[in-house]
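Help needed: design a sequence for this.
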């Protein structure tokens, strides 16, 4: 990666990397590593970054909403920590321009693929955490995610995953999806439900929530994520 590219993204993030190799790894798609054996790609950093993002957003919501119940906090977090939000952040950073990927992936539109962009944001956050620590990672996360959080808390942004999933399915067939409750746990005053979304006899996704409605929404969210990642 050219120094100009490194400096541009560093300046946007406000990070001076102690180990620039982590930065490069975060931006390296597995397709490039496949074409260049021995090169590290960003999937391990993506795993770490996902956890860092969740803890920062969870803590923010926990402190911001001291009276909110667990189910409410989970709903807000799921609305913010989703592929759509990650892609929005990626595009605000022009992250697709910096990705290092294989020729085939690039030729097929990988630089603009939502799943690739979302994974790269998480990988970048994982790299920042390792290189700079949690406080710097928190600063960066809140810089880009706080506007989304404010929209969600103000009721200006609610992802109706069930509607979105039905719209996607209807582009292919008139056969609707159906939701089933796979499991109920806990006493009546504190139940959790696990729902599944099924289409043509196939389980597309599962979700667990404090109500049947929330569980169904999260099942639809998982189904959408799986479908988008397979594009």
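Sure. Designed sequence:
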């Amino acid at each position: 990666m050219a120094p100009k590219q490194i400096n541009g993204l560093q300046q946007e993030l406000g990070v001076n990397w102690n180990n620039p190799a982590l930065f490069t790894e975060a931006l390296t798609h597995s397709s490039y590593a496949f074409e260049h054996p021995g090169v590290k790609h960003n999937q391990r950093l993506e795993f770490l970054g996902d956890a860092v993002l969740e803890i920062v957003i969870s803590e923010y919501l926990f402190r911001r909403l001291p009276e909110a119940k667990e189910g409410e906090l989970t709903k807000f977090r799921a609305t913010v920590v989703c592929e759509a939000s990650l892609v929005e952040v990626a595009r605000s950073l022009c992250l697709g321009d910096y990705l290092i990927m294989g020729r085939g992936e690039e030729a097929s539109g990988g630089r603009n693929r939502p799943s690739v962009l979302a994974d790269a944001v998480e990988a970048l956050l994982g790299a920042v955490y390792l290189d700079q620590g949690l406080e710097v990672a928190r600063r960066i996360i809140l810089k880009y995610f706080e506007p989304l959080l404010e929209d969600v808390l103000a009721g200006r942004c609610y992802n109706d995953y069930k509607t979105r999933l039905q719209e996607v399915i209807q582009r292919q067939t008139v056969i609707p999806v159906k939701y089933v409750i796979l499991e109920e746990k806990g006493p009546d005053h504190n139940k959790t439900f696990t729902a599944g979304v099924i289409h043509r006899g196939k389980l597309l996704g599962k979700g667990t929530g404090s109500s049947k409605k929330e569980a169904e929404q999260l099942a639809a969210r998982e189904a959408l994520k799986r479908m988008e990642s397979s594009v």
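The CA atoms of residues 42 and 83 lie 17 Å apart.
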